[in-house]
Structures are given as structure tokens and as C-alpha cells.
Amino acid sequence: MTKKEQKNRLIPEEELYDLAELFKVFGDSTRIRILFALFLKELCVNDLAAELNMTQSAISHQLKILRNARLVGLRREGKQSVYFLKDDHVRTIIDQGREHIEE
Asked: Is 62 exposed, middle or buried (0-12, 13-18, 19+ CB in 10 A)?
């Protein structure tokens, strides 16, 4: 492979940065716990806090990070906000991560 062909195959620096930022989000066990809970069902902050035995403020802080990374979405139901996994890509990342560590 020529140097020109190799250069054309490299991922742009901005994409590498974005990918690294995405994986940083997965680098926190609290956020992984939240994603696993949402893997099973949609939940509000109160339910997540109860299920994970954490404070609502701690959950809210982590949900903000997950929303900014576009891993979870939010839907309003009256005064309550219900959180869910944003799309099937999140499920795939979690499933493949589990497969990898179980090998």
C-alpha cells in the first residue's frame, strides 16, 4: 500500500477526537449502570435513583453527560422526564462490550 493510500484510509483527527470522547463516557461505572438500567426499560430520575441506590442529583448529573453524548433521550410525561436509550447503536455497543469481556 502506498503512503497516499494509507493517508486516505486514516480517520480524520476530528472523528478520532469524537470517538475518544464517546468512549470516555463509557469509562464511568455509574454511567454504565444507568445505561444497563435503561437497557431494560425507560425510567424517570426518581426510579433510576431508587433502582441504583443513588441520589437524584447524582443521577441527573450523569444523565446530562449521557444526553450530551446522545446515548440517552428524554421524553416529558406531564411534569416527569422519562429517559431511554437513544437508539439501537447504544444497545449494540453494550452488547459487544459484554461479549468482549466475557471471552
From this structure: buried
